[in-house]
Design brief:
heterodimer; A: 16 strands; globular; B: Fumarate Reductase Iron-sulfur Protein, Chain B, domain 2; FAD/NAD(P)-binding domain
Chain lengths: 276, 458
């Protein structure tokens, strides 16, 4: 059992929670994730740790309310308990001696990209942050990102705020003008990570993506989260979830992530009916 | 006049049971048990005890059953084994205790496993609960069979024990792997509860190697650590199309069905719907997966490279699977999985195999024939060709020496390359049986108790 001590609505579909988890908080690094089970009938699902505070023994998770489990999680209030939380899991990549990193977040992916920007900044790297959202109402962590990165570029798909277009538009321009970029981190929708990797592949710039395949246990037991990286399958839970974007088979990942769409719709309907 | 064959085990009807998850083997009645117990010749050299990995005093507990002293029988078993209800169900007795029974010289062996199960299920537990020595604590990593056995023996010797489990429920493979119809979860709960009564503490949702490092356990005051993290990492076939939707490891399939109760009312974990399942492999895990699939309403086929004689699964499991209507496609090896436009499995393409003449070691090799490969239509493929040790703790504990397949290396006392860190079960041997894991857990416990005794004396 882990108590929710703070809950904020970041936008119409994205929620931030701080949860008491002393042991997890003491070990968490950027890129780690936790597995959560909301109640006894719930599924186990992964959420990346957005922030961790060793002093208060809390971790922060930021999630989009998209499926049955996140609907259930969002029903919990401050003071309520999450039934099970386990972590920190995964093998975070460490980036040392980086001169200039471009960190890219797409939508709620900004929540996971942001701790990387913070970690890189702390070790003295120059950080440019590109954050893309569908429209102006969906911005999250805007102030945090602005306070952390050296340069920040926002885009919206519909042009309702800042630049109209995609993160890759900004990325291409930046890579033309900035010649010292030695790392790109891209976290967001699979299509975005794929597009970013395609841009940087041509320039041979190291690119790290954080993958979100379907997981059951999160500890290497089921292989449900296997992703093709290069010529072999890797388990996102124990080998990742961060991988070399130039090696990942994004098309297969997208297909595999669509496996349970029908069941998910049904579950959402049941949970919503139950809520009413 | 000796009854030549075992007292039959009552079974649920095959056509009924293949539609539900209730237990298949229904268990002896008291009359059955006493009748079977009286088949034991009470021979003096007790070969069964030696061939039991945990050396249960089999003739003595059987004598107690014969005299209808069930509680005594349980106490006798409990001296060396805390899990009679589990072992009675899942041990391969035919290659262990029962294989050396003197009865086998002329007749069928005494049904030791069935009697053990009867005692575990029906006798009243008499526990001698003593306060544990909190100055000497042991941390057990993983609540599967080896960890539980080690915990039990340590606690009985007065050592305080904490068992850390990564998942949200206890039992390891007993919980997620072996299905309800072979090992009811209420039985697992009941036997784990005995350990709780002894004062053993359990903590779920803690991954040693992540939440707490192995070395930190010593900082926390533990004097010894036992690693029983199992062989959880599934092996895949490495063939084209294995990333298609509908290809699962047996671990994933069984975890969804057994552990997460996928597909049951109210439970959120989804199960892919489909009509046909092909299970690849011939071990007990393959049988479990196939029999689960059958119960979920799938037409189920097992594809195995060798022939019926080489199937590594217990004969009883194979027979049960056949009775339940599972098709065996033998001497067939998968070459490729085909998917439709949505990425969902459409069929599996297999090569017909043949066995060679036995080599000098007596083993037949299996080689492809020149036949044109054939296709089996299916929407789901379950890969049950083996597992290797879970890598989490091993990767985070650099000093821990491992062997070729990622198994943890141990000495004759189950001690690893790190002092006072022991290991046992599938993490050491690779995938093996529940009872072998119990044996390893007990052996490590003996070494820990020895260390404890020396500390107490010093």
């Amino acid at each position: 059992m882990a108590k929710i001590i703070k809950k904020d609505i970041l936008n119409s579909g994205v929620v931030s929670m701080e949860i008491e988890a002393t042991r997890i908080a003491s070990k968490a690094q950027a890129g780690h994730f936790v597995m959560i089970r909301v109640d006894q009938h719930g599924e186990r699902f992964p959420l990346t740790i957005a922030d961790a505070n060793k002093e208060t023994g809390t971790i922060r998770i930021i999630f989009q309310v998209v499926g049955g489990s996140t609907i259930k999680l969002n029903r919990l209030k401050v003071g309520d308990d999450v039934l099970d939380i386990v972590g920190p899991l995964g093998m975070p990549l460490h980036h040392e001696n980086i001169r200039h990193a471009i960190v890219i977040g797409g939508g709620v992916g900004c929540a996971i990209a942001y701790p990387h920007a913070k970690a890189l900044k702390q070790q003295g790297s120059k950080v440019s942050f590109i954050a893309g959202f569908r429209n102006k109402d969906l911005f999250i962590l805007k102030e945090d990102i602005e306070a952390t990165a050296d340069h920040v570029y926002f885009t919206t798909d519909d042009g309702s705020a800042y630049r109209k277009g995609f993160v890759t538009d900004v990325l291409k321009e930046l890579l033309e003008s900035e010649k010292d970029v030695d790392l790109v981190i891209a976290i967001g929708p699979v299509v975005m990570m794929k597009a970013v990797s395609n841009v940087t592949r041509l320039l041979n710039i190291k690119t790290v993506v954080s993958l979100n395949p379907i997981m059951i246990d999160g500890t290497g037991m089921c292989g449900g989260c296997r992703v093709k990286v290069g010529n072999e399958y890797k388990f996102a839970c124990v080998d990742g979830p961060e991988f070399d974007g130039h090696q990942v088979d994004f098309n297969e990942l997208m297909l595999r992530n669509s496996a349970y769409i029908q069941q998910e719709k049904h579950t959402c309907k049941l949970i919503e009916e139950e809520t009413q | 006049m000796i009854q030549p064959s075992k007292t039959p085990m009552p079974l649920a009807d095959a056509e009924e049971r293949n539609k539900n998850f209730s237990e298949v083997a229904l268990g002896y009645s008291l009359d059955d048990a006493i009748n079977e117990a009286s088949r034991c010749l009470q021979c003096l050299h007790k070969p069964c005890v030696v061939s039991c990995p945990v050396n249960v005093d089999i003739p003595r507990f059987i004598m107690a059953v014969k005299e209808n002293r069930l509680d005594d029988a349980l106490s006798i078993i409990h001296q060396t084994n805390c899990f009679p209800s589990i072992c009675g169900r899942v041990c391969p007795q035919e290659v262990q205790c029962e294989s050396t029974c003197v009865m086998t010289k002329r007749y069928q062996a005494v049904a030791i496993g069935r009697l053990e199960r009867y005692v575990g299920d029906h006798a009243q537990i008499r526990l001698d609960v003593q306060p544990l020595n909190q100055q000497f604590k042991v941390a057990i990593v993983g609540s599967g069979p080896s960890g539980l056995a080690c915990a039990y023996d340590c606690a009985k010797a007065g050592i305080a024990v904490t068992v850390y489990e990564a998942w949200h429920d206890l039992g390891g493979v007993l919980r997620y792997g072996i299905p309800e119809f072979r090992l009811p979860k209420a039985t697992v709960d009941k036997e784990i509860d005995v350990l709780r009564q002894l004062g053993i503490e359990f903590e779920c949702n803690v991954v040693i190697g992540k939440t707490i490092e192995c070395a930190e356990l010593f900082d926390m005051g533990y004097k010894a650590v036992f690693i029983g993290t199992g062989a959880g990492l599934p092996t895949f076939m490495n063939i084209e199309g294995e990333g298609s939707i509908g290809v699962f490891s047996a671990n994933e399939f069984l975890t969804r069905v057994n552990f997460m109760k996928a597909g049951q009312p109210k439970y959120d974990t989804p199960l892919l719907t489909g009509k046909r399942v092909v299970v690849v492999g011939g071990g007990n895990v393959a049988m479990d997966a196939a029999r689960c699939a059958k119960r979920l309403g799938y037409q189920t086929t097992i594809v195995y490279r060798r022939s019926l004689n080489e199937l590594p699964a217990r004969q009883e499991e194979v027979e049960h699977a056949m009775e339940e209507g599972i098709v065996f496609e033998l001497l067939a090896a998968p070459l490729k999985v085909f998917a439709n436009e949505q990425g969902r499995v459409r069929s599996i393409f297999c090569q017909r195999m043949q066995l060679t003449e036995p080599g000098p070691d007596g083993r037949c090799k299996v080689v492809p024939t020149e036949d044109v490969p054939f296709e089996i239509e299916t929407d789901t493929v379950v890969v049950a060709i083996g597992t290797s040790p879970n890598p989490i703790l091993i990767r985070s504990t650099k000093e821990l020496k491992t062997g070729k397949w990622g198994t943890i290396m141990v000495d004759e006392n189950q001690q690893t390359s790190i002092e006072h860190v022991y290991a046992g079960g599938d993490a050491v041997t690779g995938a093996a049986t529940v009872i072998e894991a119990l044996g390893a857990g007990k052996k490590a416990a003996a070494a820990i108790i020895d260390y404890f005794t020396k500390e107490q004396a010093g």
